[in-house]
Write a structure and sequence with these properties.
The structure holds 2 protein chains of 2 kinds. In chain A, strand 6 and strand 7 form a beta hairpin. Chain A has a single domain, classed as Glutaredoxin (3-Layer(aba) Sandwich). By secondary structure, chain A is an alpha+beta fold. Helices cover about 10% and strands about 50% of the residues of chain B. Chain B is built from 1 helix and 12 strands. The chains are: A alpha+beta, B mainly beta. At the A-B interface, helix 1, helix 2 and strand 7 of A face strand 7 and strand 10 of B. Strand 7 of chain A pairs antiparallel with strand 7 of chain B.
Chain lengths: ~170, ~160
């Protein structure tokens, strides 16, 4: 089973609980009423995650004030190391509209299940790294899943996809 | 003794040029070496750069070394069925007459065991080992954490 065989469930049916990078409790119902853009990552990730975060920052900049209506979230797949404080420091390097979510492993497991996303901890050189779903999930304001921006997809297609959830 | 001193001087003279300059060894040209700032020294750093093989024989990048990381290595980001993983790679092909790159989302140098946090504006030496051309040292410029490409006048994305 991979993240692409199944689609994320509608946000209104999601039931995970996490904590945002300001230390506030988070429930998916907070996203309802506005279009939502979510991706999974972690701060120890040197390549894919900063690249995706800077892409997202560029898209938000291109969309301008229109993008203020979006919920944008990074869900950490490494809650062990990504505390809210660490996420806050990390995200201060990117668009301020991006919210970091972390919490207990059980909360993350539930979030991944709701998104049909996968993550896996791999031991490496006395440390570990994470494999994780790399796409950016897009949801309409009513919480219905719309599309994914794939990591290797031509980035020019991203903005039209985001515009679709903004209208 | 004199010989040793001379050798040392040569090493220093051979120290890398600025990140935006092109350094050469044999048929290999390396340029636009950059990295991203890190939060602390616990998180791995990354290195991206561009390599051109101007010769008629295939070569390969087989190693990276730097004094600022205990465990520098070559990795490749692979996205398969939407899942990103980052396997080690033993070598990156640099075919004759072509340009290969360590670039976001593909091959990259991964710097584990940093001796210090990488700060924007810092630079550090990185020695690349090529199968045929041998070793060459470049200066890597540390850009912001959100950087996407080298900040050179003629940088390629």
């Amino acid at each position: 089973m991979t993240g692409r065989d199944l689609l994320p469930i509608p946000i209104r049916d999601m039931s995970f609980r996490l904590t945002d990078h300001n230390g506030q409790p988070f429930a998916p119902s907070q996203w309802l009423g506005r279009p939502t853009m979510v991706f999974f990552g972690f701060t120890f990730c040197p390549d894919v995650c900063p690249t995706t975060l800077s892409d997202i920052s560029d898209w938000l900049a291109d969309l301008g004030p229109e993008a203020d209506r979006l919920n944008v979230a990074l869900i950490s797949v490494d809650p062990e190391r990504d505390t809210p404080t660490i996420l806050a420091e990390y995200l201060s390097n990117f668009d301020p509209r991006i919210v970091g979510l972390t919490g207990r492993l059980t909360g993350l497991e539930k979030a991944a299940a709701d998104f049909r996303a996968t993550f896996e901890k791999l031991p490496r050189d006395g440390d570990y790294t994470m494999n994780h779903t790399a796409g950016v999930f897009l949801f309409a304001a009513d919480g219905q899943f719309t599309s994914i921006i794939d990591f290797h997809e031509d980035r020019r297609f991203a903005i039209p996809k985001i515009r679709r959830i903004l209208t | 003794m004199k010989r040793v001193i001379l050798a040392t001087l040569v090493v220093f003279a051979a120290m890398p040029a600025l990140a935006c300059e092109t350094v050469r060894v044999g048929d290999i040209e390396v340029e636009h070496a950059w990295s991203r700032a890190t939060i602390g020294a616990d998180r791995p750093g990354v290195v991206y750069l561009s390599i051109r093989n101007t010769g008629s024989t295939d070569d390969a990048l087989i190693g990276v070394a730097t004094p600022i990381a205990g465990m520098p290595m070559l990795h490749e980001t692979v996205v398969s069925d939407g899942i990103a993983s980052m396997p080690h790679t033993m070598s990156m092909p640099v075919p004759a007459g072509q340009t290969a790159a360590l670039a976001p989302g593909g091959f990259h140098g991964m710097l584990m065991g940093l001796t210090q946090a990488l700060k924007k504006g810092d630079s550090f030496p990185l020695t690349l080992t090529f199968e045929t051309a041998g070793d060459v040292t470049v200066t890597v410029e540390v850009l912001g954490m959100g950087a996407k490409e080298a900040e050179c006048p003629n940088a390629q994305p």
